[in-house]
Each structure stands twice: as structure tokens, then as C-alpha cells.
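Exam prep: given the inputs below (a chain plus flavin-adenine dinucleotide), describe the expected output before reading on.
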Amino acid sequence: MAKAPDCKGRIVEVRWLAPDVLELDVEMVEPAELHFEAGQWVSIPFGPKTVRPYTIASPPSERRIFRLCADVTPGGIGSRFLRGLKPGDELAFYSPLGNLTLIRGSSAEVVLVAEEIGIVPFRSILLGEAERGFPRRMRLYYAAPRRELLIYHEEFEELARRHSGFGYAPILEEADPGWAGGPDDLLKVLARELPDLGGREALICGGGEMVKACRELFMGRGMERRAIRYEKFW
Ligand SMILES: Cc1cc2nc3c(=O)[nH]c(=O)nc-3n(C[C@H](O)[C@H](O)[C@H](O)COP(=O)(O)OP(=O)(O)OC[C@H]3O[C@@H](n4cnc5c(N)ncnc54)[C@H](O)[C@@H]3O)c2cc1C
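Solution:
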């Protein structure tokens, strides 16, 4: 039999960031605080062999109430469950895991690449780094088809305005008259802007095809295999 979830929380707020993207604020019940590294995820069980991982969107300094963010478009068991949650509901989950985290002790510049909801771990990482004044230089490339799916866009613009150590490159894949610069393609932008990646590190998150293509591009541009951490959300 599967081990019982070791954490319990209570939903305190549900917000919709787009028609199919929701944010959940979860207050810890057991244990009283959640300890994690920025970029890690918790798992929600749906039966003895079925779990869905969801990444923590808030920084590790926020231990009493943490935030999840999910795109519920897939419509499977995980999406349906999250869609139905409301304030006061209890949430049982397994404690944080995962290594889409910054390499400890390194001071190398980091390239972050997010496709759609793959942005979630980077919100936690970037807010955590902002609290420390961005000791390492970072640049985020973040692509989504439409403006409404570029969640947290204003927050990243504000971070880039306030911190010279953080650069932000949002990419819209579909035409939008209100968007300066026109539609573009994530991999083409990366290929254009990053000719030499020797000595840098990368964190990549999104769909499996993009992650694979991005790793190949980065290694072809001189980045070491072990300098790249990634997570395939789908
Ligand atoms: C380590 C890890 C962390 C994750 N963190 C998050 C997170 O923070 N937020 C989040 O929304 N999801 C996250 N996911 C995805 C999540 O765990 C579920 O797979 C997703 O919610 C779909 O579950 P479901 O039961 O609704 O649909 P399923 O029945 O499991 O999936 C139906 C189909 O949709 C595909 N799919 C899943 N997600 C997407 C997507 N975003 N876009 C397109 N196709 C997709 C699946 O590959 C599958 O083919 C994460 C996945 C992993 C592996």
C-alpha cells in the first residue's frame, strides 16, 4: 500500500489568473511550516498509484502559507480536483521534492527558460533571489501563445526594473496588436540571443519537446550537460 501523505494544509484562497489558470494559497496544518528549496514540487495523491506533482510558486521564506499555480486545461484527475477546491478545504500532500533548483555554491550566470505553466518554479526561484538582491545574474526567457497565458508578466517586469542582476525576455507566440515586437518562437529567440553559453547554467521547464530541443541547443553552444537542470511538466 502507498505511504500516507505526510503533510496537511488548508486552502485559504483561490484566484483565477486566466480562464484556465488558478492559484491556490495553502496554509500549513501539519507540520506547521513547509521547508523547501525554490523550484521544488509537492505531490497530491489520487489513489494508491496515482499522484500529480504541483510546483510551489511562492519563495521558501514563506513557510506558513505557500502558493500553488496550475493550468487546469488538461482536464484530468488533477485538474478536476484543483478546479473544485475552495477556501476551507483540506489538502493532503507529500512533502517537497525535486532538483529544478539553483546549483548550490555556484556564482555562474543562470539562463531560465519557461514554456507556459512551466513558469511556476521560476517565480519561486526569482522571488527568493530578489529577497537577497540577486547575488547571481539571471535572465528569464518566458514563452506563451497568448498574453493571458503569460502569467506573472507584470511581476517579472517589476523585478527587472528593480534589479539590474535580472533580465526578462517575454515571448508571445501568436500575433497580438497590443504587443510590441510581434510574435516569435522561443527556440529561435534563444538561438539568436545566446551564441556562446560556456560557463553559464540553465534551468528549463515546460513540455518535453521544448526541453529536449533547448538542452541540445544549449549544449551545442558550449554549456556543460551538468550545468543544465530541467523538468518536463508534460
Ligand atoms: C515535476 C512536475 C511538476 C509539475 N508542476 C506543475 C505545476 O506547478 N502546475 C501545473 O499546472 N502542472 C504541473 N505539472 C503537471 C501536473 O502534474 C499534471 O500533469 C497536470 O496538471 C495534468 O494533470 P491531469 O490529471 O489534469 O491530466 P492528465 O490526465 O494527467 O494529463 C492529460 C494530458 O495532458 C498533458 N498535460 C499535462 N499538463 C499539460 C500542460 N500544462 N499543457 C499541455 N498538456 C499538458 C499530459 O501530458 C497528458 O498527456 C507538473 C508536472 C511535473 C512532472
